[in-house]
Amino acid sequence: MNKINLLFALMLVVSSINMNAQDGTEAEFRKWALTPPMGWNSWDCYYSSINEEITMANAKVQQRKLLKYGYEYVVVDIRWYANHPSHGGGRYNEDNPDCQLDEYGRYIPSPMRFPSGFKWMADAIHRMGMKFGIHIMRGLPKCILDNPSVYKLKGAEDISWDKVYTSTKPECMWLKDNLTVRNNEYGQLYYNSIVDLYAEWGVDFIKVDDMSRPYAAEEINMLRKAIDQCGRPIVLSLSPGKTAYDKIDDLHQKTNMWRMMDDLWDNWPSIKNVFTEADYWSKHHQPGCYADCDMLPIGQIGMTVYDEGYCKADSGRKSGLTEDELRTMMTLWGICHSPLFIGGDLTMMDQQTLRLLTNEDYLNMHAYGVEARQISNEEGRIQWTSIDPETGDRYLALFYTDPKTSTCILASVTDNTGDSNVYESSNFMIDFTSLGFEKGQKVKVYDVWDNGKLLGTFSGTELTQTVKRHGVKLLRLKPERSGKNSLRLQTSAIGNGNFLITATINGHVDEHSYVKFLMDGKFVGSVKVEPITKKAVYHLYKPTKGKHTFQAFYSGTATTPSCRQIKR
Fold first, then answer.
1. By C-alpha distance, which of 513, 503, 492, 491 is closest to 561?
2. What is the pTM of this model?
């Protein structure tokens, strides 16, 4: 590398973090979630009554049936620290929950419900090749006040607890377990201490409740610092929603996930309400940071574990969403890059649910699609699109929700029926030119939810699709392309153990061209090609010693083909 090029490379390395990129310059914590997190969470199926036996039974099914598709997190939800957390369903026992603390005033798992402890559970789940997550409430356990002299603040054992909390009155309106933590050195010490404990257990994911509505900016900042100092990558998820739109910059700087909605359940109005929020947040999407539509209320949900004297057993219910509504939910979550956390009991999962969760083309769109956005919303007919950065194919989702839901029109798909109020389905005539294809260009169309069935080859406005009310069609559009593109992949050292991985395109580039980078077979980022230099650059910081294999996939353009190269 000559002197001028080296100087240019070093300038790239020391420049400020690029919040919009997935080119290796993004903040380190965002690399812990290169694609939207996926897994299972216990809340929808067992509320606060979950226990070790049920968790591990679900983990075993998850490993066997879902892990290879990317569902890697096993998350124990709320009140795992209480011996008697529930009065049934979503009703909390706040009178005598018998919360468990260690000597430093930190919650520890209920020995009655989790007798092996979270260190054992995390180790067991890690041996299965998966990751372990927990739910926590914002703040400091209120039960410390019952006998404050028994507990010591780790790192400042002589300090009284009133230096840590702001008030003896909990601020959370729906669960009074915790007190707000002061934004001072002692508050930071407390957050450091709990995250250090979770790191010792082997926790990989923390869902923090009562954090994003109302938006607890000071405690979010303390928690970000606590995670960054603990020495373990831990994905940070905020709850509940609705998260305020004006917090977007802070969210991007400090969190991996935040809820766009309040708790979502298995009814159509809940699903329909997500469309507006998903449309807004998609305009602000940045890799490693994900607006969360909430868990998937799919399968068997709403159960309660028996606890004598506190709550009766409840066998729950099967999700109240129809097959069409379930497919609509999955499609919207997938195309807008929401995290996917299954809410139903996996030990009771049927084949229909399994097929819905494991469609590989759908999961490719969810993980890797770029430029995801809503392109029209007209009288309940809603269309979304995204691009596969590896192939240049386009995904198109056609939703028919309810008529007269919106008047915002930016049509790339036009309707050719009469008054939608009187129809249980709607016909969509697809205009391929409005999706970026050339006039007369042939496009092969595949139905993603119908096992990738080829519907035929079309151009112009030749294709019409019928969508049931509350239903969806998810299509992969594969254009016929001509010409030739090639890709040259280079690696260059730039000092301090850092490297640039540069993909140079010999051929055609447009404003929607991307290079998808893999290192040792694992995805590391999709980078937009700079149209003048025809380059896409990935910054690799201090890789492990040894030989590494890099792969680059160029999407091509709407009219010219994709290509790839491997460099060892």
1. 513
2. 0.93
